[in-house]
Amino acid sequence: MELADEIIINAPQDQVYAALNDPEVLKQCIPGCEELVKHSDTELEAKVVLKIGPVKAKFNGDVVLETTGAPDAFSLTGQGNGGAAGHAKGGANVTLTADGPNKTILRYEAKAAIGGKLAQLGSRLIQSTAKKLAAKFFKSFADVVNEDATA
After folding, report:
1. Which residues, in sequence order, are bridge partners of residue 79?
2. What Gene3D superfamilies does this protein's entry cite (predicted)?
3. How many domains are contained in the chain?
């Protein structure tokens, strides 16, 4: 499954990048996130509860950031285990482009694969849920960063 989109955030690029690396901001924006622990500058651990169709699962996952292109670009890879519900793994490439002094264009391309019970739900349900979750995350993220930029 692949997802791609872009969103304009009313904040300078360095502020957007800093927010993308702030566990408190991320926890607030990730749908269903119960816990997010930063183990290092490049390693995070998350506990997320998601309902996809009839399946509700608590995922424990690890995320690794690759920040060599920062603050203009970075990538992340992760994997999560939802017990009997199944497992997921994937990654994303994110680019941040300054659009004037106080606007940033955030673009992402993500790929994910799932297994277990979740994989039996059908790709259309999974794809539409993934798009909704991504949209919800980026809307929340933009709202939080925009609030901080105007404060």
Report:
1. 62, 89
2. 3.30.530.20
3. 1
Is residue 101 scored above 70 in pLDDT? yes
| Order of all β-strands in the sheet with 55-66 | 2-9, 104-115, 87-98, 73-81, 55-66, 43-52, 33-38
Q: Cβ(144)–Cβ(28) under 8 Å?
A: yes
Place of tokens 């949209």: 135
Which residue in 112, 118, 107 sits closest to 83, CA to CA? 118
Domain assignment of residue 124, given as a range: 2-150
Q: Is the pLDDT of residue 7 over 70?
A: yes
Report whether pLDDT(118) > 70. yes
Q: Give the residue from 117, 54, 122 showing the smallest Cα distance to 88.
A: 117
pTM, two decimals, is: 0.87
Nearest to 85 by CA among 110, 111, 50: 50
Amino acid at 119: A
Give the CATH number of the domain where residue 132 resides. 3.30.530.20
CA distances from 6 to 38, 61, 93, 108, 125 (A): 26, 25, 12, 6, 22
